[in-house]
Amino acid sequence: MKFLKQFLIILAVSLMGEICKAYLPLPIPASIYGMVFMFVFLLTGVIKLEQVKDAGKFLIEIMPVMFIPAGVGLMSSWSVLQSVLLPVSVITVITIFTVMAATGLVSQVIIRKSKKTTNEYKEAA
């Protein structure tokens, strides 16, 4: 019964995302609305982590299974995808390295600022 209640809470938040998607004229997927709602609810305490934790862990554990239909869809559309495979692969590789570089640079800036702030705090004390 505990899992059912937790799944229903997650489904209710997802439904709120679907409703926002239907009524707001923004090009944002319903799942993003739902995640933002869940984040805000958890942050504000409207929903406690314990109210959704076990169901969330279960959904994360079975996530790889959810990619099977997408993989089958790619395999069945191979003839259509074959012509764009090279450009998509190149774009994917470039994007991966760009994101890695940007993440590394931002992380370095944050680490340097936090060390500088920590050193200034130590010197003032």
Shape: extended
Number of strands: 0
SSE run: HHHHHHH
The number of helical elements comes to: 7
- If you average the pLDDT, what whole number results? 91
Rg is 21 Å
Q: Major sheet: size, sense and barrel closure?
A: none
Low-confidence spans: none
How far is the first residue's CA from the last residue's CA? Answer: 54 Å
- Strand percentage lies at under 5%
Question: What is the number of independent domains?
Answer: 2
Structural class: mainly alpha
Helix content range: over 70%
Explain how this protein is built.
- This protein has 125 residues and is mainly α.
- It folds into 2 domains: 1-67, no CATH class; 77-125.
- 82% of the residues lie in helices and 0% in strands.
- Helix 1 (2-23) crosses helix 2 (30-44) and helix 1 (2-23) crosses helix 3.
- The termini are far apart.
Descriptive key words:
125 residues; mainly alpha
Write a brief structural summary.
It is found in: Cell membrane. The chain contains seven helices and no strands.
Secondary-structure topology with pairs:
Blueprint: H1 2-23, H2 30-44, H3 53-61, H4 63-66, H5 68-76, H6 78-81, H7 85-124
Helix pairs in contact: 1-2, 1-3
